[in-house]
Amino acid sequence: MDFDPVAVQAAVRPDAGLCHRWRREWGLLMDLAVWGELRSTQIGLPGKLRKRVLEFGERLRSYGSDRGWIPHPREQIKNALSTSLQTRESLEKVSEIAGQFSSGADIAAFRAVWEALSAALMADMAAREELLVRLLNQQYQEEV
Residue 8's pLDDT is what? Predict the structure, then answer.
């Protein structure tokens, strides 16, 4: 049995409204990482944060992108799962570095935006990954 194309599309691509929200929040986060007043006792930490936030933005864009160019639904699902994993790893890296900042006029704003963005994204990823795995398992069970 083949994959249901509607179910696959629903599983591999987040809602456009969510993607716009994440893009807007990531933009705020990047602005605070570059222009905000964030203080740490570690030399070079602001540069690391900017690099990780940029990398996170790239992963986030990939997470929300259209996978219609991938010809087989199974490969679309596997790509979505892989992208989700990479996005999770990027989230963890930003969280680790962000936690090392101790003060600054913009630290509260940065943390508020980061917590809102990461919580919403993690909730979406958990639900989406479960759906993707269920689709793959259903396909494998039917083939056996």
Answer: 87
- Predicted confidence at residue 3, as pLDDT, reads 80
Tell me how far the alpha carbon of residue 47 is from its chain's centroid.
21
**Beta bridge partners of residue 39, listed in sequence order:** 103
Question: Where does the pLDDT of residue 1 fall: very low under 50, low under 70, confident under 90, or very high at 90 and above?
Answer: low
Q: What is the DSSP string of the chain?
A: -PPPHHHHHHHHS--HHHHHHHHHHHHHHHHHHHHS--B-SSTTHHHHHHHHHHHHHHHHHHHTS--TTSSSHHHHHHHHHHHHHHHHHHHHHHHHHHTT--B-TTHHHHHHHHHHHHHHHHHHHHHHHHHHHHHHHHHHHHH-
- Look at residue 144 in the predicted model and tell me its pLDDT: 46
